[in-house]
Protein: Intraflagellar transport 20
Organism: Ridgeia piscesae
Amino acid sequence: MAEEALAKAGLHFDELNKIRVLEPEVAQQTGELKEECKDFLDKLSDFKKIVGTFIDVVDGVAQEVEKEKMKAIGSRNLLKAISKQREAQQQQLMALIAEKKMQLERLRIQHDALLKEEQGQTEFIEQFILQK
């Protein structure tokens, strides 16, 4: 009866027979909630550490990717420069070939002219010898 009167007044006895303002069941639930909150905070702290480590790893990978990207851009630019250089060299060689062909043709014409001249002189010498 005394417990009921105290319960109406909002006072309760716990398992150690101490007077409490909360009902024993609510006090137990509050304790469990406190433990769950502590576990949650521990897990959240662990998660935060894992995420921090993950972010560090991702930042490291991003830096490596950026380095490789710069290397690739440099290599591509070098390749383009070499390609342009080869094109210019090829054009120079083509111009030199054209010049040499023209020189060959000029020398061929000169050779033909000299052969005709030689033939004419040979004929002249033969006629001169035959007339003597």
Q: What stands out?
A: The chain has a mean pLDDT of 89.
